[in-house]
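Customer escalation, tier 2.

The customer says the design service returned an amino acid string that "doesn't look like it belongs to this structure." They asked us to rerun it and document both sides in this ticket. The original structure tokens are below, unchanged.
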């Protein structure tokens, strides 16, 4: 690599650097953009608050991976503790720990953005060349091999006559280990730290890891400096060393929670930053089968169902499978004492399905909010409104039907007091159970919105060109610009949008 990588332990003195473009964040948006700009001959600096980690450090132990690779050591959540938010924090961002599932942005979403939000430039014809480019670079293709857990989803949907299909993954030389969420041990997952970020470094970009951006300094309607603190990796606290970047153009690619928080810390609060934050709120059910399922091995997601994606005036949802490594399984399924011990002892025979609710498409659904607490820490609020409650109930019952149709001996919900059933007669109890905040586990692995794109500066944060409406030369290129949730895993949408945005950002230098 002809570029340079700086890590926190190697930065002993304050540093000021100048560049053409400073990109904050090295995930799906930041790395694709960094490669595109550096390959155009621009001087690019990438700042990443997480550490730079490689497969030599991916021990496949959850106790190592969550503190090393996840925001807040895997404990990030909404202010009321109702929704756990799993979000990446390392070089490569969420791409280092996601489950590799890739979709192009669905037509129905592009049409909604055009008709409701006026984004008529994000058409299929405009985006497909960019999707094709990232598919080629990242090896995105349909995955043919199902583990037993995904086969149960396929079998249950087939028995019920419900739509299901094979999914596409960004992998090359995948060993089918199933440990995508704790860092790929064989570099099969084509995450950003293996693909677009090395491309950027080969073209001369500079990467600063363990470097958290504290604020943007704005003067004369432009960002004149990016102020960052070097972090001590062991403690996660500032080491006392400062990095200051003076760019011609600045890009926030810090994600749908940290990105809005950065703008707020920088005084760029116009009442819109942090609004319309979407989480694809997730609920799930588990099934115990007579035969071994080994849900911790094999590609986590190779089958999905969009049978319930369009429910008219009700919130839609889509179905996929999660991996069930021991720590993750023990936290998503509630229980106590002997009951929980017996549940975990059955882990080799357990399978699970998750339902991701598609927020932000119904009239009046504003999602959640990112804000700052008095001490400057990030706060995420997400009200669990009646439409979401209805969708979580409907999706939980649908998942239970699939698991039963696939031959499970017992189905268990993720309620505080799990609802257990052995046949269809128990579905009425499951439907009658309480749903909502703190009634059962709710998760998010997909964070979107918070810096919405739109034509109207009074109703959006950035314009169709990804540039901030009020600060010239400040761009936002990541999942935070999405006006709604997607109804599919968002990584490829973000890859494609970042590839699309390269010309816009390059033209501003």
């Amino acid at each position: 690599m002809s570029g340079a990588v700086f890590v926190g332990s190697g930065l002993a003195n304050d540093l000021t650097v100048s560049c053409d473009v400073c990109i904050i964040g090295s995930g799906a948006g930041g790395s694709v953009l960094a490669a595109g700009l550096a390959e155009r001959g621009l001087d690019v600096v990438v700042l990443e608050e997480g550490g730079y980690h490689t497969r030599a450090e991916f021990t496949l132990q959850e106790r190592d991976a969550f503190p090393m690779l996840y925001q807040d050591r895997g404990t990030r959540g909404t202010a009321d503790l109702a929704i756990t938010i799993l979000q990446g924090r390392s070089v490569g961002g969420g791409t280092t720990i996601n489950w590799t599932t890739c979709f192009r942005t669905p037509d129905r979403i592009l049409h909604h953005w055009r008709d409701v939000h006026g984004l008529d430039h994000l058409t299929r014809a405009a985006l497909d060349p960019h999707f094709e480019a990232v598919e080629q670079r990242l090896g995105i293709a349909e995955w043919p091999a199902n583990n037993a857990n995904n086969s149960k989803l396929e079998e249950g949907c087939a028995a019920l006559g419900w739509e299901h299909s094979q999914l596409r993954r960004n992998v090359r030389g995948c060993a089918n280990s199933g440990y995508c969420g704790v860092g790929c041990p064989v570099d099969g997952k084509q995450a950003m730290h293996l693909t677009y970020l090395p491309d950027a470094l080969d073209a001369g970009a500079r990467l600063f890891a363990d470097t958290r951006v504290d604020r943007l300094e704005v003067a004369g309607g432009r960002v004149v400096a990016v102020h960052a603190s070097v972090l001590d990796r062991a403690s996660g606290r500032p080491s006392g060393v400062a990095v200051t970047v003076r760019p011609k153009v600045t890009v926030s690619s810090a994600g749908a929670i940290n990105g809005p928080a950065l703008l707020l810390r920088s005084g760029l609060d116009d009442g819109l930053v942090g609004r319309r934050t979407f989480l694809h709120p997730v609920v799930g059910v588990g099934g115990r089968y007579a035969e071994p399922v080994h849900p911790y091995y094999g590609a986590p997601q190779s089958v999905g169902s969009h049978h319930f994606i369009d429910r008219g005036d009700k919130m839609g949802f889509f179905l996929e499978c999660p991996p069930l490594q021991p720590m993750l399984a023990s936290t998503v399924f509630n229980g106590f004492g002997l009951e929980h011990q017996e549940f975990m002892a059955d882990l080799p025979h357990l399978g699970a399905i998750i339902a991701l609710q598609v927020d932000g498409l119904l009239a009046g659904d504003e999602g959640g909010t990112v804000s700052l607490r008095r001490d400057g820490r990030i706060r995420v609020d997400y009200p669990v409104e009646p439409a979401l409650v209805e969708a979580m109930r409907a999706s939980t019952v649908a998942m239970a039907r699939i698991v039963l149709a696939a031959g499970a001996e017992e189905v268990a919900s993720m309620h505080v007091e799990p609802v257990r059933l052995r046949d269809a007669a128990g579905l009425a109890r499951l439907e009658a159970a309480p749903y909502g905040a703190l009634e059962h586990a709710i998760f998010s692995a997909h964070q979107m919105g918070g810096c919405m794109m739109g034509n109207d500066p009074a109703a959006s944060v950035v314009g169709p060109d990804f540039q901030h409406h009020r600060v010239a030369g400040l761009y936002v290129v990541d999942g935070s610009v999405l006006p709604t949730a997607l109804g599919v895993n968002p990584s490829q949408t973000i890859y494609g949008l970042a590839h699309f945005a390269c010309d816009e950002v390059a033209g501003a230098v």
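Tier 2 assessment: The sequence is consistent with the input. The chain has two domains: 4-59+92-139+190-275+450-506, 142-180+282-358+385-441. The two ends are 24 Å apart (CA to CA). Sent an explanation to the customer and offered a walkthrough call.
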